[in-house]
Amino acid sequence: MKRIFLQLLFGVTLLSFLSCEKFLAEEPVTEVSIDFIYTTPEGLESGVNALYNLMRNYNIPEGEGDALRSSLFFLVGTDLGLNRTWHTPYGPNHTPVAFPARKWTRGYQIIDRANAIITNAPKVDMLETRRNQIIAQARMVRGELYLDLIRMYDNILLDTVATTPENAFDPKEYLPADPIEVFKLIDADLDFAIQHLAWNVDYGRYGKGVAHHIRGKSALWQKKWTEASTHFDAVILDPTHDLLPREQIAQVFGQNLNHKEALLVYVRDEITGGNDNLAGGGPTWISSVFNSRVYELSGGEMIRSIEYGGESLGWSFPNDYLRSLYDAENDLRFRTYYYPLQLIVNNPESPNFGLPLAPDRYDDDYRRYHWSLKKYHDDEKRIGTLNSYKDHIFYRYAETLLLGAEAAWRMDNPSKALGYINQVRNRAGLTNFATFDLESYLEESARELAFENERWFLLKRIGVLVERVNQYYEMGSNAGNKAIYPMASHMVRLPIPQSQIDLMGTFPQNDGY
Amino acid sequence: MQLKRLMCPLPAYTKKIIMRVKLTIILVTVFCIQLSANVFGQKISLNERDASLWEVLKKIEKQSGVTFFYNKRDVQEDPVTIILQEEPLNRVLALLFKNLPYGYDIQDQVVVLNQKEKFVPTKSRDVRRQTIHTLNVEAVQQTINGTVRDSLGVPLAGVTVSIKGTSLRTHTDARGKYRIATPEGQSVVVFSIVGYVSSEQPIGEKTIVDVMLTAYIDDLDEVVVVGYGTQKKSDVISSVVSVNTEDVNRVPSNDLGEMLRGKAAGVYVTVNDAAPGSSSNILIRGSRSLTAGNAPIVIADGVPVGGINDVNPNDIASIEILKDAAAQAIYGARASNGVILITTKRAKEDRTIVDFNTFYGGQTVKRNFDVYSAKEFAQLKREAYRADNNNQYLPDEAIFTDIEREVLATGDFIDWEKELLRIASTQNHNLSVSTGTAKTRIYSGFNYSKRQGVIPGTDFQRGTIRINVDQTITDWLKVGANTSWQLSKNNNPGTGETLLRTVTTSPLGKIYNDDGTYRIYPTGVQESVNPLLDLAEVSNTRNDRNDIMNIFADFTPFQGFRYRVNASRRSWNRKTTHYATSESLQGFRRGGLGNGAMQFEDEEEWQLENILNYNTSFNKHNLASTVVQSISQRRYNNFRNNASNIPNDLLGIWGLPSAESNIPTVGANKRGLVSFVGRIQYDYDGKYYLTASARADGSTVFGANNKWAYFPAVALGWNIHREAFMDESFVNNLKLRASYGSVGNEAINPYRSLSTAVQRDYLFNNVKRIGYVPGDFLPNPNLRWETSTTLNTALDFGFWNNRLTGTFEFYNTRTTDLLAELSLQADIGYARMLRNIGEVENQGFELNMNGLILDKNDWQVNLGFSISRNRNKIISLYGDLDEHGNEVDDIANQWFIGHSKNVYYQYRPAGIWQQGEDIANSHMPTAQPGDIKLLDSNGDGKLTDADRVIVPRDPKWFGSFNLAVNYKGVDLAADFLTVQGVVRNNAFLYDYASGGSLRGVFNGVKVDYWTPENPEGNWPRPLESNDRPYIWTLGLQDASYVRLHTLTLGYTLSSQFANRLKVGSLRIYSTAHNLATWTKYKSYSPEKNPNEYPEAISIVGGIQVGF
Questions:
Q1: Which pTM does this prediction carry?
Q2: Interface test with A, best of B588, B835, B1026 (most A CBs within 10 A)
Q3: How far apart are CA B161 and CA B150, in angstroms?
Q4: B826: nearest CB among A28, A88, A104
Q5: Over the stretch B939-970, which tens digit does the pLDDT of each residue have?
Q6: Looking at the partner chain, which of A45, A51, A384 has a beta carbon nearest the beta carbon of B589?
Q7: Is B308 helix (H, G, I), strand (E, B) or coil?
Q8: I want to staple A276 with a disulfide (CB 3.0 to 4.6 A). Which of A57, A116, B134, B369 is the partner?
Q9: Cβ A49–B588 below 8 Å, yes or no?
Q10: What is the ipTM for the molecules in this complex?
């Protein structure tokens, strides 16, 4: 009997030893290996598709909290904005610890993913044109992000190496990159993109138009006016993109953004969405931030309804300065980019249903009621929610025209500048400018592009940001208490996130923080 | 107690049996499969003249159902004569053997014959002479009977009952009952059983003698389950603590973790979630790992289970907690956070025990904070608007909504807590049947419990069936099976938001619309949604099935050797259905559509073990060796389908095919472990002990080249009290022991060493295209085992016949190659990475003492306490040095060298800025009066990140104190717990959405806020537009507490009364759980914030019946 036991035991032990190595190997069943992304044409394609998903989240993130704050800051914290509460640009949370870190952290993460595609695509056996399209989109992303980072922070890191577990901890000295080097990379990336992207692309993808547009901006930041002008002209001369005609001005920010004026749109879709990791993305609150809560007005004459944006936050509004820029009578934009000043009673139980709301009912406290932005209005939003799945136009042709005008003006070509800027004015139903000067350019840009993510950067580039914000930006609540938090001069650069300063060790914080 | 009783070695008397009876076991089986019939109840009539003794015995067997153990050859041939009518067995036997040279022992249905020690034959062997005068027997002998119980009133079986000065003895039956005849003039009866203090009772004129035996408080002969075997407690030299299962079962909870609270030194239990059906967090000797799991592994009958609640507490025979490396090493691979060993009950040979326990009771909660009353909230709101309006109050019309003003005028305020919370019921019913023959033994346990939550709509039901079978096949082969089958159902519509809204929704509102439906915005403020709405409109049901099948075979081919093959398969699956109707908040927000999800999860784990034991002794050397080979694997699958926009509520979640959008998610993973273990236990004469063990473990979750690790351990022990020089001392136990060894931690998710992608699709031209991209985690192909090395020293002591016992332990655990999830610099492109870094130390001591303060006839008073202290310290992290040569902290992860790994690192508040203070020249020049003043901790006149301070979070010490009093049939027990020095962050003191930031939007936990008229206020001035800067620094609160954890009062009926009710024993009791808690922490529980499910205070009444 003993022998049988010992033999049995020996057998079991031997068997288990032999199968150990195989048993202990790991093979995930629901996740694909990274090797797939970087060694096959299909993988590279999927890698590029994912970059769009990440960029949507970077620029127009779902939900609330820091993500929303990181975007709203640039929409609202300009000379055109008025803010009532919460995200409070230039307020006490404008510090390295409390300012959202995500532009920095997400930005570099996406840059790394682009780096990986740019590094690995040349090694994959595939059709050259397809390869170049893939690399072009990845370099487009990288160029766009580096331009965004340097214009926000001024002092940034420059990293073109794709991280692998092997090289992740190679010794590295954390010091601000030379801006010249940064712009060299941005320009090289965007030039490659311009070369290999097509004008006509699928809705949602980068095309040659947006590549020229961003490349032109990069040149403006470097004060290379001629170069800038070339790129804006390229977009303007090509038939792919154009202003929508005057009679279609309501469609510029309509439900369907798949039109000529859009250079790049971030798409969203409730059915394939739910959160930003999914194809359709998650819902944003952008459309609710700028609406007032008319249904809170006393008297009960107003209820939640689609035409006034349903459930609203009433956090941020256009300010008096911006209001003063509009010719309310003639400027079509005043009627299309903003909600009407006069409300129509929409509570069917009110005897005044369908009539204009009585003048003494407008308690303008920036929450219940104020003049409001309609650019992000969503006709399909449900009245009980702050969530919207509307597509978001991120770069558009009107800006190309205005920047092209600036570039031409800087090159002492005022007639070309006037030609461009007047296209924008004419479309809005206004008469031509006869002369071009910086102030009227900034004003026209304000009228056309207010709350579109570009104002803050335009002012910063021209060097008037702090001055104009302190002159016009409003902060307050309950009428009568405004401008508590002035913009300090150091706030022209964002604080480097404290968590990253802690991690990098040697990287200096921007002055003043 | 149950365990001790079942595990106790055969009583010493068996050694005295001179007639080795070799009756076939089968015969015994035939006679013994029956429910505990009272052998004494059988009346016997005999009319035997000059019959042989064995014929008489046979007749008695037939009539009474007892079995005699004897050897026919040894039974004398001389004829006996006995005539009697309707006499009880005891009397019959007493008469029969009175003048025969045999004594006898009755144990259950077995009567063992033995030779009387000093038998002097009487002259006459004619029994008839006495039997004729049956009526006179009472005069010359007396029969006494009674019941023996332990201090908790549970009947004790197998107690030896003897008459002092004679060889007469018997044993109590399964119900603790005995009956014994006492010869004339003998007046003292002695009760004894291993594990209990013997008791001598004078008989006097009594015929009923009930006694209560007190257990040795620290019984050295108690058997302790250690890894892959059992040891006598006196032989254990590693840190193993046995938990008293009776104490555990006294806690009326259905979470075993909660029941273990305060029951063992060094074991720190906190609430994970107090909702019905949830479980607790258990930490043994602090937490070690920075990122990997810190939960102990739970092994039931040698098999790892999914969670501690997979086992019905009533089925548990013993719980052992392994705390040091020497004890854990045998489970080394997963043992670094400690091991909880559960042994379930098994049936005993020839014994049938039926127990029925039931309790029913109610639960409520106690709030340790105030919310603002309607008037106070209105004032808060006015103040908040005033601060924004240049210190001018605004008219109420500009502040309040129409509804708020209306309710302010009418005074019909809402008490949200009253609307929400209810008195909830809790109940538990348990039946266990244990029955066995010499060859087959079966234990079955049946349990049903149902617990309602204090929040309507939440409840939990669980049913468990356990069947443990042992079968002897041959003298060298035994097989057995342990099976458990558990079903549970949990309803919880999601109470976090509801509780939050109960605190934050102001009383200025109306619950219902005019048509009786719930008003979505009761106050007209859109931030505050009706807390009651989703309780009514959302359902979330979880159905779990959990089964364990464990079979084993023991081969014992020769003396001292045992080979066990142990195979188990555990499977768990869960079906979750979640549905929010079109009327729910989500439904409203989706435009009147239903939404929900259906999820299926399953997990299975199998394990195969080969265990060899060989024990031998020579002279005074005892040697035991164990070799184990083990392999196990666990797989998990998950499928979830989120359905959005279901057009109507007709089918609930079953209508998901009609949803506008169905988004599936899947997940699956697999992990495996292979182990080889060897252990040698040696002792010399029970005085000097040495144990050494070693194991090799391979785990799938680590990098390809680091799968294997080796963990050795060694322990030494010295039983000082067994030395000659300790004789005659009041010290009856003194043991010094020390151990040193290491164990591993592999509690990380699978695939962390591999580079895998996440799916991030996008829409181009409105068509979905697949996107893959590496996720946030940087994979680490070099991931390896985290190792904890522990030095443990301890002194066990027992004085004055174990009236005072205790243990003091000191330990130091160094954990190296810590599995830590690190934040990474952004340019790396990954947010986090799991790495092996640095070293963490856990050092502490544990002391527990128990004293039997009073032990008089009717009175027993027992006092005990335990104190545990653990200090966690990061010794090193990455090894980077600063310019002074000190190691650099990891501020991003809040890990600081020389401090605990669990700390807060933030600014410290230092009051409120007052009017007239020179704010402009302070370190916070932009602050306003009424803002928070922060501590400029480095005094440089500026507020910088260097002013942040480290605040430890861990408890400084924790302990328990218990008192048990018995007086006759009454038992009273009280357990107190305390945790001291723990700090928690209470969001309700500062957070906007939790109503803490004094914006006048939400109601919240009441504080004394600053206003120009109340400069003493210690919270900042309310502000409508925004949170006050740095208000979030106000959340840290001392969460120390003292709690009366359980208070039990029981009464055990006297045996006479129990008899009259036709039961063996009966105890009724009432227990209060969490009856009182003393803490400063503003919440329902010192361990939870106010939006988390509150821990209930429960009071139950119960009955325990034994048949």
A1: 0.81
A2: B1026
A3: 15
A4: A104
A5: 999 988 889 999 999 999 999 999 999 998 89
A6: A384
A7: helix
A8: A57
A9: no
A10: 0.95
